[in-house]
Amino acid sequence: MKLRNINGTPDTVYAGGSWMQYWEKFSGQKTTFCLAAGCVGKDLAGAHVQKADTRDASWYIYPLCIFHNERARELEVSDGYKLVPVDGVETCEN
After folding, report:
1. pTM for the whole structure
2. Are strands 60-65 and 44-51 parallel, antiparallel or unpaired?
3. Share of the chain above pLDDT 90, in %
4. Can you tell me the distance from the alpha carbon of 15 to that of 38, in angstroms, rounded to the nearest whole number?
5. Which residues sit opposite 17 in a β-bridge?
6. Most exposed of 16, 32, 58, 82 (fewest Cβ within 10 Å)?
7. What is the pLDDT of residues 22-62, one digit of tens each?
8. Where are the domains of the chain?
9. Are 60 and 26 in contact (CB under 8 A)?
10. Closest CA to 59 of 15, 1, 7, 18
11. How far is it, in rounded angstroms, from Cα 22 to Cα 18?
12. Contacts by 14-21, CB closer than 8 A, 24 or more apart
């Protein structure tokens, strides 16, 4: 699956904890490494992403390492992990 990272979202936080905790809670999954193809980075963040090559403009959370989370480009990622929608989530601004 291809995703596009959304840069410029660091000031938005999930009121229940980190975005990584949000992904784990609502996906029912866990990972200890980055899910970008070929990456084994362990400094994980719940990255704000969109599906690439679709008309779906929704935002999702997906685990990526800090390196991949800081780049606004398309990434090939594992199909075995869920995208968790951000729509309707209670957030608070820093």
Report:
1. 0.85
2. antiparallel
3. 59
4. 32
5. 14
6. 32
7. 999 999 999 999 999 999 999 999 999 999 988 888 999 99
8. 2-88
9. no
10. 7
11. 6
12. 14/46, 14/89, 14/90, 14/91, 15/90, 15/91, 15/92, 16/90, 18/45, 18/46, 19/45, 19/46, 19/47, 19/48, 19/61, 20/44, 20/45, 20/46, 20/63, 21/46
Going across the sheet that includes 44-51, the strands are 74-76, 2-5, 44-51, 60-65, 84-85
Cα separations in angstroms, 21 against 37, 42, 47: 22, 15, 11
Give percent above pLDDT 70 in the chain: 86
CB 76 within 8 A of CB 51: no
First to last CA, the chain: 32
